[in-house]
Structure prediction request, 357 residues.
Amino acid sequence: MDLSRITTDLKQWSKALGFDSIGIAKPELAADEAHLLRWLQDGRHGTMAWMPRHGRKRARPAQLVPGTVRIISVRMNYLPPNLEPTETVLNDSRRAFIARYALGRDYHKLMRRRLQQLADKIQAVAGPFGYRVFVDSGPILEKALGRNAGLGWIGKNTLLLDREVGSYFFLGELLTDLPLPADAPPDDLCGSCRACIDICPTAAITGPQQLDARRCISYLTIEHQGSIPESLRPAIGNRVFGCDDCQMVCPWNRYAKPTDEKDFHPRHGLDHASLVSLFNWSEAEFLNKTEGSAIRRLGHERWLRNLAVALGNGPADSEAIDALQQRLDHPSELVREHVRWALERLLAVSPSQELAD
Prediction:
């Protein structure tokens, strides 16, 4: 078996499958394991109970998939073309900001299918071999593995950064027992820049490569199941699904390349939607318009929770107040709590309308 030839072919095959970059990593994650354990010990994972569930195995691929000696890591750009600047949406408090990665179809199935096709191509040349496909689907440290594979360095915002394309990309992996020639990690090029730390609306980035998920807007609006802490709600602004602020200000994202993958282009006008229009979706509309989207994992209840917070941070106009009033008797206590909070804020500014009983 010519492993060097397979490695060369991998680059051609991955490009044909729509991957923007590929690298090969050794599973050497001792420092990352120590970082993870400290993070978990400090409780910075919040309510994400699955994070500590696998313990050290998350940093030990060979324990997760026995026989693993290399990780093939791939990258796929997701930034849709012709988008308005993130700042434009964030500065319009009547509009909903949705993280750029979630405007189109969910990436998991697409990347998993193409990684399987990549594995099939390897098998056609190398014969049967051991492997397992991962696309954000198992307990592995994908950013650390991407770094080891030469796809970027881990920036101060904890995201993987590449000097040529920035950070707007998805990652996927093939854990394999083929001892392919490994790539080398790149240099850390963040230097003295701390733009991502300074911009974070909730001060969730507490230092270089130090993220407190409990304060992170992406965690609060996506992963967190319960009530959003009142002290953090005003800082969320109009962000209803995720947050891209630390990517928006990163100097390396000046080089971000728009994706050619049509599945990642915006659907249902989510890149221009108003808060009120989304808040007025019935559950049936929500399920229909988020089919195949990462947003659907929220469920209608948390979708309304997030939108209520955003409406409460917006202008106290009659349209917003009327929409919130219509949800005061929602069956979910979680929704009712956030709706009442939003109404109290808006009516404090516009007291001519009364809070319904």
